[in-house]
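User: Can you predict the 3D structure for this chain?
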Amino acid sequence: MAAISGLIRVMEKAARKAGGRMRRDFGEVEHLQVSQKGPADFVSKADMRAERTLYDELLAARPDWGFVLEEAGTIEGDPDKPRWIIDPLDGTSNFIHGIPHFAISIAVQEPKLGGGGWGDVTAGVVYQPITDETFWAEKSRGAWLHDGRLRVSGRRNLSEALIATGVPFQGHGDFSEWTKIFSAIGPQVAGIRRFGAASLDLAWLAAGRYDGFWESGLNDWDTAAGCLIVREAGGFVSDFRGRSMPIHSNQVLAANDALHSKLHKLLVGALKK
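Assistant: Here is the predicted structure, written as C-alpha cells:
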C-alpha cells in the first residue's frame, strides 16, 4: 500500500466535498434547472456548484496555482507553479438523464522546465460519487483505487478484450472516422461499450474492467487525470499515430502493451481506407 501524499489528500477532499452535493442533486435531478450551451451539450446547476466547490477548496490549499476549468476557462497562477485541470462533472448528459455514471476529474500539470508552456501531468484523481470510488495516481508511484494497487488487464488476445469508446453525437465528433474504426475493431473483439464519461473509461481501463479505449474530440479536462492513471497502472496511451504526450484529448488510444499494438494496427489500417 502506498502512503497517500498530502497533494492527493487535498485533491480527494475537494472531490468528495463536491461529490457529496452532487449525489444530493442527482437524487433530485428532475428539479434541476438545465441550460443549453450548444447542440446536445448541457450544463446544470450541479455542474456549476461542483466547479465552484473544487475551485474554492483547491485555491485555499494551493493559492498560487492556476486552473483550467471546463466552465470558467483558464485562470492564470504563478507561471513557475503547477496548475489544476478540472472537469467538475464528466458525464453531464448521464447526470441530467438520471443515469448514475459520472465522475469528477482533477489533474496536476507541471510547467515545462525553463518556461514556455506545460509539461507532465504528475497527479490525478477520478472520483465517482455514486459508487464512492476514488481512482488516483502520482507519477512514478503507481495507480490506486483507494488503497488497492491498480493494474491494467493482462489479456493479450483481441477476441477476449472488452473495449470502451466514445460515440460521436449531435455537433460533436467525426462520424466517418469513428465508423471506420468501429468497423475494423468491432468484429475482432469480445465487446464494445459506450458509457459516456471518458475519465471513468480510462480509470476503469486502469482497473482492468476494460481492456482498451479509443475516442477523439475530447478536451484536456476529460483525459488529463485518466491518462496518468492508465500509465501508472502499466498501460500505454497514445494518439492515433502512436505518439505519446502528457495529455491526450483530440485522439486517445489506450490499452496494455500487447493490445495497444494490435488495436493501433487495426485503427491505422481503417483510417487509410
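The radius of gyration is 18 Å. Residues 59 and 110 are 16 Å apart (CA to CA).
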